Amino acid sequence: MRERLWKRVQEHAGPAPKGMKRPATKWVKPGLIGRVKHLRGEEDLRHASLQDFREET
């Protein structure tokens, strides 16, 4: 799964949206649906881990 995701990131990476706090982050064009586990009660995705992802159909 990690290799598939990294290949997708490398192929579809684009510039960060204007005004973003973290411009060094890799931004990927829409097209993936991910299932993410994270801590509840936080505004941001803190301590998030990707559980699974799939192509959007």
Poorly predicted spans: none
Mean pLDDT: 78
Shape: globular
Count the E strands.
4
Question: How many DSSP H or I helices?
Answer: 1
Distance, first to last CA: 18 Å
| Order of neighbouring strands in the sheet with most strands | 1-2
The secondary structure category is alpha+beta
| Order of helix and strand elements from N to C terminus | HEEEE
Radius of gyration: 13 Å
Percent in strands: 25-35%
Give helix % range: 10-25%
Largest sheet, described in full? 2 strands, antiparallel
Could you explain how this protein is built, in words?
The protein is 19% helix and 30% strand. The strands form two sheets. Strands 1-2 form a two-stranded antiparallel ribbon. Strands 3-4 form a two-stranded antiparallel sheet. The chain is of the alpha+beta class and 57 residues long. The model has no long low-confidence stretch (mean pLDDT 78). It starts with a helix and ends with a strand. The relative contact order is 0.22. It has one helix spanning 2-12; strands at 13-14, 27-28, 32-37, 49-55.
List the helices and strands and how they pair.
Blueprint: H1 2-12, E1 13-14, E2 27-28, E3 32-37, E4 49-55
Antiparallel strand pairs: 1-2, 3-4
Features:
57 residues, 19% helix, 4 strands, two-stranded antiparallel sheet, 1 helix, two-stranded antiparallel ribbon, 30% strand, alpha+beta
